[in-house]
């Protein structure tokens, strides 16, 4: 029986189309480098997890890339906004029999395998698990069934998303895991372990 599934939302790494807010400070080429490093980190963190893993690309499915075809199932996002795309991804996996599904993005150098494992464990006794982000959003959402209100009427990409989501979940048992820093701006980057490591190595991003 299918039990746990991890959904990983990614953007196809293209110059000028990823980390656009970060690029305003460091330029498109460096922003693309940061994003490809973020993807590599997310791959390394998730590849050994014992759940089934699904990479959902934003534009097109790519074979023979860093997401090994023998470790990750590959699908394409669909929907008019982020909420619709996330809901559709959850629906696909619940429909084929998964009992617990977690979605993450690919914006966190601070993410570890333990965060995902802890979220799956908390879903044993909770309806929903959230991984809050320092910017007021969330980097992880875990569900045992689709809760439609979670995916609508949100100001995606703003500091109100977590509060709006928690308001919609007042009648559900919700657990949270550690708050982490996801990287959208240069200020986010400066606070990340990645930036600190790069500064120690060569003083550059």
Keywords:
single chain; 205 residues; alpha/beta; Spore Coat Polysaccharide Biosynthesis Protein SpsA, Chain A; seven-stranded mixed sheet; 7 helices; 18% strand
Could you provide a short overview of the structure?
This is TIGR04282 family arsenosugar biosynthesis glycosyltransferase. The protein is α/β, with parallel strands linked by helices and 205 residues long.
Notes on the structure:
It is a single chain. The protein has 205 residues and is an alpha/beta fold. The chain has one domain: Spore Coat Polysaccharide Biosynthesis Protein SpsA, Chain A. It contains 7 helices and 7 strands, in the order E-H-H-E-E-H-E-H-E-E-H-E-H-H. The chain has a 7-stranded mixed sheet with strand order 3-2-1-4-6-5-7, sandwiched between helices. It starts with a strand and ends with a helix.
Count of discrete structural domains: 1
Q: How many individual helices?
A: 7
End-to-end CA span: 45 Å
**Based on DSSP secondary structure assignment, what is the total number of beta strands?**
7
Q: CATH topology, which one?
A: Spore Coat Polysaccharide Biosynthesis Protein SpsA, Chain A
Largest sheet: 7 strands, mixed
* Rounded Rg: 16 Å
Shape: globular
Order of strands, main sheet, comes to 3-2-1-4-6-5-7
Calculate the mean pLDDT score and round it.
93
SSE order = EHHEEHEHEEHEHH
Any idea of the CATH class? Alpha Beta
Proportion of residues in extended strands: 15-25%
Low-confidence stretches: none
Counting helices, strands and paired strands, the structural category is alpha/beta
CATH architecture tag: Alpha-Beta Complex
Helix content: 25-40%
Annotated CATH homologous superfamily: Spore Coat Polysaccharide Biosynthesis Protein SpsA, Chain A
